[in-house]
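2Fe-2S iron-sulfur cluster binding domain-containing protein
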Amino acid sequence: MPSLIVNGQPLEMRADPQMPLLWGLREVANLTGTKYGCGVGDCGACTVLLDGQAMRSCQVTLAQAEGRSVTTIEGLSRDRSHPVQQAMVAEQAIQCGFCTPGIVMAAAGLLAANPNPTEAEIKVGITNLCRCGVYPRLVRAVVRAGRALRGQESVAAAPAPGISPAQAAQAVPALRRPPQTKD
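Structure:
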């Protein structure tokens, strides 16, 4: 059973070591922020940080991740305060949101390696696909997040989550009940 560090916590995956890390995170660890997109490493929806480097988790097996540190979107910042998350909101670089976790993780990995990338370096370093076409805003968001990480700017665009996952889970059954009528 592969053991790894996920979002700073030791985790033993009770799964086939040849299972893609993506499915280990989603199905075994219940970390569903990492998205399945193409399954062949092209789209980047499944991007996580593996020992600090952006990697497509659909292309890494649990065996290959053994003993390594994995950071998912859930572990990047619990309160959405990471500069990349804040800059993505501030620059309106989020549309439907499906690709956003992978893009945020790719940007975080790029900025960890190079806190002051040029526009060209951003375009080469973040190859995630976005069907909504947020690319110009994405570049601005990464530049802005870089400035924030270097202490040159403060970005506070996204509020902390307003409802906990536990509260959301409890609210769902109430939302599915048919409306009560008075006879």
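Residues 172-178 have pLDDT under 50 and may be disordered.
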